[in-house]
Amino acid sequence: MALVTRVKQKLDAVKDYSATGRLRTDVAFLKVPVAKVNVFFKQPNKFRISKEKGISILPKGGVSVNMQNVLAEKDFVAIDAGKAVVNGQELRVVKLLPTVEASDVVLTTLYIDERELIIRKMSTTTRENGTYDVEMTYGKWTSYALPDKTLFSFNTKDYKLPKGVTLEFDDGEKPDANKLKSKKGYVELTYDSYQINKGVPDSYFSGK
Questions:
Q1: Percent of the chain, pLDDT > 90?
Q2: N or C: which end of the chain has fewer CB within 10 A?
Q3: Any idea of the CA torsion for 87, 90, 189, 187, to the nearest 10 degrees?
């Protein structure tokens, strides 16, 4: 699909970046303070969020909050699904269907700003982590298709924590699983600065 190709070309102009930002987590029953983070990306699909201490609750597997990673995969079919209004803006809707049977991603829906050639929202259904949404707010770095803010939302009942992670709950006890069924969780990443196409060593993606 021509539109997806043009969006990918704009994303591909960013070969790598390092960024600083703040990660805010809003999940029922959890105490997670706002954390200062460093974010790294390198083509074709290396992406990492790191912080000095605390927990990161972004699930792994088919989950991505980075648009470069989403379109780095070549094994999908893009289907035009018309238009939709999101936050007062008319956007082109494109559905990405994986062609690899073993893919954890079942379906990805992109909401594309055709004038700016940026993805403003993405909804993804996975086998392991249910369905999640990512909304991007753009400003200073629109010309690079890099967001000022990314909001990741998911259903807590479908969410799977990375192995080895322990959480501190508000009342000291783990919540009843039934209480989580209707809850939404949010992770908001606000970027303070980017260093774009300055080079990012591979070692940044291998450490803890």
A1: 48
A2: C
A3: 60
- DSSP code at position 54: S
User: Does 144 reside within a domain?
Assistant: yes
* Helix or strand holding residue 181 (H, E): none
Task: Kindly report the CATH number assigned to the domain that includes residue 145.
Answer: 2.50.20.10
Whether residue 60 has pLDDT greater than 80: no
Distances (CA, A) of 48 to 25, 37, 53, 116: 17, 10, 15, 26
Residue 115 has pLDDT above 60, yes or no: yes
Phi-psi sector, 130: left (phi>0), alpha (psi -120 to 50), beta: left
Whether 81 maps to a domain, the answer reads yes
Cα–Cα distance list, 28 to 78, 111, 124, 156, 162 (Å) = 35, 28, 22, 8, 18
Answer for the pair 121, 91: CB distance below 8 angstroms, yes or no. yes
Split into its structural domains, the chain has a count of 1
pLDDT score for 165? 44
